[in-house]
Amino acid sequence: MYVILVYDVDQSRTSKMLKKCREYLYWVQNSVFEGEITRADLEMLKMELEEIMDVDEDSVIIYSLRSTKYSSKEILGVEKGGRELII
User: In this structure, which topology does domain 2-65 adopt according to CATH?
Assistant: First the structure.
């Protein structure tokens, strides 16, 4: 499946969230990630993120798409992030 993940966490946890998300997805922009991921890896990522975040203060939103067949992406301005997957 293809997912888009965005998070809003306290600044003290931002670097840990960034590092963990980059293990599974491509970094697109500040606090935004996307990419193909298996259901098992997505469940693992969610469990690992919940260990980092404060569930009473932080938030993570995951948009899941079965396919990118009918999707498109338009970038205005500078393209941040990259397609490299850092592990």
Answer: Alpha-Beta Plaits (3.30.70)
Give one DSSP letter per residue of 4-71, joined into a string.
Answer: EEEEE--GGGHHHHHHHHHTTSEEEETTEEEEE--HHHHHHHHHHHHHHS-TTT-EEEEEEES-STT-
Q: What is the pLDDT of residue 35?
A: 94
Which residues, 6 or more positions from 41, have their beta carbon under 8 angstroms from its beta carbon?
24
What residue ranges do the domains of the chain occupy? 2-65
CB atoms within 10 A of CB 37: 20
Tell me the pLDDT tens digit for each residue of 40-76.
999 999 999 999 999 999 999 999 988 777 777 776 6
Q: Return d(Cα 20, Cα 44) in angstroms, integer.
A: 11
Short-list 85, 87, 86, CA closest to 36? 85
pLDDT of residue 79: 75
